[in-house]
Amino acid sequence: MAQADHGRTRILDAAAYTLRHKGLTGAKLSDIAKRAGMLAPSIYHHFPSKDHLVEEVMMEGIYHNNRHIMAQVEGLGSSASPIVRLRAAVVAHVDFLLTGDDYSSAVARVFDDLPDEMRKRVLAAYSSFDNYWRDLIVAAQRDGSANQALDPTVVRKFLIAMLDSCSSWYRPGKLSPAQIAEQAADMLLYGIAVERT
Amino acid sequence: MAQADHGRTRILDAAAYTLRHKGLTGAKLSDIAKRAGMLAPSIYHHFPSKDHLVEEVMMEGIYHNNRHIMAQVEGLGSSASPIVRLRAAVVAHVDFLLTGDDYSSAVARVFDDLPDEMRKRVLAAYSSFDNYWRDLIVAAQRDGSANQALDPTVVRKFLIAMLDSCSSWYRPGKLSPAQIAEQAADMLLYGIAVERT
DNA sequence: GTCTATAATCAGATAGAC
DNA sequence: GTCTATCTGATTATAGAC
Fold first, then answer.
1. Does A172 reach chain B within 8 Å, measured CB to CB?
2. Domain B55-190 of CATH type 1.10.10.10
3. Cβ(A193)–Cβ(A102) under 8 Å?
4. Which ranges does the entry annotate as DNA-binding region (chains A, B) (predicted)?
5. CB-based contact, B168 to chain A, within 8 Å
6. Distance from CA of B68 to the nearest CA of A (A)
7. B189–A154 C-beta distance less than 8 A
């Protein structure tokens, strides 16, 4: 990060921002270039094609987010219970998205629209991340602190979709990113209802 | 529905299917036409532009889904408690998406990519729907059966994003649509955790 | 490393025959 | 009501000067 406006990095940042806000086909090369302070053809000096640029943003987004969540969870220390670890992951994920990481928001926004071949590669990179979530959920179930009647895969899909959505609807105002993260964690762990009926 | 392959309807169905599976820009007019059994220019005899066609699919999707959920909830009768009504809405929404309504799945898939003006109009049509969800949530909170510490708007956003996602990841196999719907309802109402810690 | 052309492609839309 | 042929505009990508 010492050299944040080195050409390549400046373009990647501009692409992440533009993909996040305009989607895959909405993000024109000229928009990205403009934000990076250059004209469209100049991008080709740094990247062979729009697809290559997009793919690099996706990979960065996945690894950024992944590293951040893992760091928060593992930072709890080995004494933390599985359910506490799961809660920390939820909070970290929401907080990361809302505190302005364009890369991970870009992934959430454009993933479904990627060309087939690229989506396969990005999905493969994502799978280690998926497994991490899965392990958090399964550990809590084995521990008896999470409902064993829930399917871990279904929980993971619903959970990630729910959390990823916040970057598209959140606007600063009444609630802070940290408060949204707490609400998400409470909702996911304890549900909307006060008690089982 | 008696005349399901009337020209207009055939095109709308084809557009809903194609938008659902390929997204807004991925759904070419030629793809839609092919599925409707004609060539692209023929669409212009029935619709003035791709945008008009897309907008009509969005509106249909919203009203279909809306009517279905309301019918299920109101069908419970006036004796049903707010939390039971909320659960019924969740189940109905998931079940509707997974039992093959291309229109509402198309809305979930392409909404964020719509041109600004159209998105505003679609959002306006959506707002009565949003209010219905909001009322279900607020009623349960007032009733004391839902956690009053949760922000109703945040709950609604997270809830809808979570439920809408299932049409993009669900594949028939181990679990049926009805089972996914039950898992979603249990997750949302009671949470992943067994008890508050 | 960025620019000014310009090519190549593709998709939405139109004209007009049948 | 659907077709063939064509136009138009936008966007990715290339060539080559500076």
1. no
2. no
3. no
4. 28-47
5. yes
6. 22
7. no
Q: Domain A57-190: state its class.
A: mainly alpha
- Amino acid identity, residue A92? A
In a 13 Å sphere around the CA of A44, the CA atoms on its Cβ side amount to 5
Closest to B160 (Cα-Cα) out of B104, B85, B83? B104
Vertex B19, ends B160 and A51: CA angle to 5°?
A: 95
Amino acid at B137: I
pTM across the whole model: 0.95
- For the stretch A175-197, pLDDT in tens is 999 999 999 999 999 999 998 88
Stretch A55-71: mean pLDDT: 96
Closest nucleotide to the alpha carbon of A47, via C1': D13
How far is A154 from A136, CA to CA, in rounded Å?
14
CA dist A106 to A44, A62, A95, A191, Å?
21, 10, 15, 28
Q: Domain segments of chain B: what residues?
A: 55-190
